[in-house]
Amino acid sequence: MRKDLDGFFGLMIDNLIQLILIVSLCRELIHLPDPYIFGKILPGAAIWILIGIFFYAPEDTRDRSFKVRSIMQLTAPDYVVLIVEELDRALRFYTEVLGLRLGHRSGEYAQLDTGATRLALFTRSAMSKILAKPLEAPSSSAPGFEVGFKVADVDAAFSELVARGATPVVPPTDRFWGQRTAYIRDPDGHLIELAQDLPRR
Prior knowledge:
- The structure is a single chain.
- The protein is an alpha/beta fold.
- It has three domains: 2-71, no CATH class; 76-137, 2,3-Dihydroxybiphenyl 1,2-Dioxygenase, domain 1 (Roll), CATH 3.10.180; 140-201, 2,3-Dihydroxybiphenyl 1,2-Dioxygenase, domain 1 (Roll).
- The protein is built from five helices and eight strands; from the N terminus they run H-H-E-H-E-E-E-H-E-H-E-E-E.
- The strands form two sheets. A four-stranded mixed beta sheet has the order 1-4-3-2. Strands 5-8-7-6 form a four-stranded mixed beta sheet, covered by helices on one side.
- A hairpin with a 5-residue loop joins strand 7 and strand 8.
- The chain is elongated.
């Protein structure tokens, strides 16, 4: 919006300067009478300026919309990577406690077989090397995101996962948006949500 306003005022000032130059040239160089300048030349120039604005404005809009379309081609995430302290510990949780299948592992990176959007694990030390800066472990009191799983029975899933060693955070609770949800944590403190759709009333 700011760029559009700047462009509008810039164009207005440019056209105003051109009209002033036309009047000055017609008066001083060609010595045309004022009635002819203001009665015929300036109205004609104004009409051509308006034609130019209407001709180039749609072109500019098409160009900008093409740029937006060409840049914004993101759809579903290809993968989500969790930064973990110890890869073996994290893998045990996600494969043995949650029951996800390991897709492949390479060095300090492991990828789980979770369908179209893959869930992966990468050690904090390895990510620190990539970013060339030290990385602190996130605080459990300030979670940045959650990983959500749909389940058929959230109470049963919550009880089973806690029995397997998951850290409970919030027990199953009915939510106003039509789901029953519960929260657990993985060994690195990441929130994991279990969600069950409730029947519509």
